[in-house]
Amino acid sequence: MSNREFKIVLLGEGCVGKTSLALRYVEDKFNDKHLTTVQASFLSKKLNVSGRRVTLNIWDTAGQERFHALGPIYYRDSDGAILVYDITDEDSFEKARNWVKELRKIRGNDVTLYLVGNKIDLERDRHVPLANAEEFASSVGAKHCGTSAKLNRGVEEAFARLTADMLARRDAEEASNPGSSSRSSTSRSEGATSAGRRSSGRNAGIIVGEDDVDGASGAGGGKCC
Ligand SMILES: Nc1nc2c(ncn2[C@@H]2O[C@H](COP(=O)(O)OP(=O)(O)OP(=O)(O)O)[C@@H](O)[C@H]2O)c(=O)[nH]1
Ligand SMILES: [Mg+2]
After folding, report:
1. What is the 101 CA–ligand 1 centroid distance (Å)?
2. Closest CA to ligand 1's atom 29
3. Is the pLDDT of residue 211 over 70?
4. Does residue 51 form part of some domain?
5. CATH number, position 169
6. Full residue range of the structural domain in which residue 191 is found
7. Residue 83 in contact with residue 116, Cβ under 8 Å?
8. Is the dihedral of CA 90, 161, 100, 152 positive or negative?
9. Between residues 1 and 206, the one the model is more confident about
10. Which residues make beta-bridge pairs with 117?
């Protein structure tokens, strides 16, 4: 049985919960503390989807401004993208437009895009109306989901929907081009970067650092975002 392999990138502003979503989905863990992702981290998950073996290679990119130039390195060859915003943070939603532009510059329409509003456990502090988010998602060819990495709500569903869409897209591509060998196994995740080639190891390459942004600014209070 062939193994379908997909590369997924998580992108969006800092502190919206990208790492938390990846960790919840792959390891069922949650950390209340914000450990700023430096460059990117990698996690891998194997699934069985209706009897078909699927491997998801998940690249969790850094949202902080100082790492923005690196994003496109990780977008290369991605099959799916999860653009995360925080439903309590309007700015993280406003900036989603820029993240879509960056992603489309590299992948055009060759990537299946999901817009994910995270932290739905904080519904009473919501600053992004659901209708606006859904409208924006459809205007950029994306689907929309709500999640709480903290309470494990909607996370499995978001990844499952994305996986189903990527599988359907791959099947359609192969049906319309039967001569092409299945873009399964390792070839698909091997980008031109070393990032792509690290995909064989589980949880390899996780690089996190303490968030020192507020500390450096002397703002105090200890809240990072
Ligand atoms: N209430 C709530 N907090 C969350 C949720 N998801 C993440 N957080 C918190 O939000 C903060 C940031 O989460 P991260 O996952 O580190 O955010 P990130 O998007 O990876 O941030 P960068 O790596 O800097 O880009 C942490 O304090 C998390 O505990 C959620 O669903 N609900
Ligand atoms: Mg992170």
Report:
1. 23
2. 32
3. no
4. yes
5. 3.40.50.300
6. 3-207
7. yes
8. positive
9. 1
10. 85, 146
